[in-house]
Amino acid sequence: MKILKTLLLICIFPLLSIAQEKGIKFEHNTNWEQVKAKAKAENKHIFVDCFTTWCGPCKWMAENVFVEESVGDFFNENYVNLKIQFDETKNDSEDVKSWYQESKRFTKEYNVTAYPTFLVFNPDGELVDKIIGGNEAEAFIATFKNVLLPENQFLTVKKKFIANPSDLALAKSILPKALDNKEDELIDLALNTIIKQSSKEELLSEENMLSFIRIAEGGVNNKAFEYIYNNKEPFEKFMLSKYQFPINDLLAFGIIKSEVTPQLYSGDEIDFDALSKNLSVKYDKIDLSKALESSRLKYLLNKKDWKEFVLLFDKVVENNKNISANQLNQYAWTFFEECSDKEGLKSALKWSKLSLDKEPNEAALLDTYANLLYKLGDKENALIWQEKAVNAASEDLKEELSANLDKMKQGIPTWE
Q1: CATH number of 32-148
Q2: Which of 117, 237, 305, 352 is at a distance of 20 to 30 A from 385, taking alpha carbons?
Q3: Residue 342: which of 307, 304, 379 has the closest Cα?
């Protein structure tokens, strides 16, 4: 079974509308012009929750944050509040349907592409900030309290910076927000100003180093990557002290993202030996061996070259005694789902058993092991291990693992 990480920012689950006695009071049976008129008359900013019915974090915010009394007190006092649904379903109310065209305009005009996105307009109806992703109640209030001040509003500061891109203070102010909103051109412009006008000591402040690291993770075609590459030592000390993570591995990730990842999904053949030689010359300060090894594994999985994958991954496991149970389980489960080759499945069973040696009571790992036994025809032992998985499962997993157990008992495949 796959081990899934639940992200707060962006995910996919249905959103259910809920009645709110406390919390944020959203406008209903209105239109955009009326909302703007109310905001202007009351001298309030406008808070717009952009959501979809398939967005899990949207549901989480609606059920856990918007209903909080403290959240309601703050937003009702300072904002005119509006929810706009950005998808269309057969169960939509007439109120929701009346916003269909407006939601399309918002998507295009304000580039709403991730959910939840929160838009803030000033009392004159001008967009001044855009925040992607939710948060816990206290932090959420702090964010939107901060946004009420013009000097903290992303789009307000952006306009000022674009008009005066040599302003160092504005460049420093806009860079974190530009990163949050993934505005690459703005990031480059701000970064260029910061590098040109700051001393080396200033560039190595914690604030700047954190920004540089975030940018360099995205690839090699930016000044942050270049600066870190040529100043590895202070960044190495910073990364190890703060995150226990080598700067080499972060830069290697950026190199792979720019130089290798596009090729992985192009469908073209990749000569990894030649690629390794070329990249080692081009980026001679970085050890790319582990990153290229991981890329080669992904490449072989994409090609469904099970035999070559097994040969390579067995070497990885043999040479890395600290390999995580999660990684072992990830590849074992992929083989269970996609591979029909008996020898390949036997190798996956071996990896699965190694994961259980590391974490013997983890339900997801037990489920993987049982399913591999079952697919290999060992129903008797599969049932034993699947019983263990069900008994070890948390309540949210028990139903799914019990369904697998029932299928095994009935002789029904647990794979597609």
Answers
A1: 3.40.30.10
A2: 305
A3: 307
Please compute the mean of the pLDDT values over residues 331-350 and round it to a whole number.
96
d(CA 354, CA 345): 14
Domain with CATH 1.25.40.10 in the chain: 316-416
Note the pLDDT of residue 93: 95
Q: For the chain, how big is the Rg over CA atoms in Å? A: 26
- Is the pLDDT at 403 greater than 50, yes or no? yes
Asked if residue 218 lies in contact with residue 183, where contact means CB atoms within 8 angstroms, the answer is: no
Partners of 127 in the β-ladder: 121
**pLDDT band at residue 17 using 50, 70 and 90 as cut-offs:** very low
Cα–Cα distance between 93 and 100 in angstroms, integer? Answer: 11
Taking the C-alpha atoms of residue 369 and residue 366, their distance in angstroms, rounded to an integer, is 5
Q: What is the pLDDT of residues 101-111, one digit of tens each?
A: 999 999 999 99
* pLDDT above 50: residue 12: no
Q: Name which CATH class applies to 316-416.
A: mainly alpha
Residue keyed to tokens 């160092």? 168
pTM (predicted TM-score):
0.71
The per-residue pLDDT for range 48-69, each reduced to its tens digit, is 999 999 999 999 999 999 999 9
Q: 274, exposed or middle or buried, with CB in 10 Å at 0-12, 13-18, 19+?
A: exposed
Classify 30 in phi/psi space as left (phi over 0), alpha (psi -120 to 50) or beta: beta
What are the φ and ψ backbone dihedral angles of 225, each rounded to 5 degrees?
Answer: -60, -45
- Alpha-carbon distance of 353 to 96, in angstroms, equals 51
How far is Cα of residue 1 from the mean position of the Cα atoms in its chain? 21
| Residue (of 17, 152, 137, 151) closest to 75 by Cα position | 137
Question: pLDDT tens digits for 140-179?
Answer: 999 999 999 998 999 999 999 999 999 999 999 999 889 8
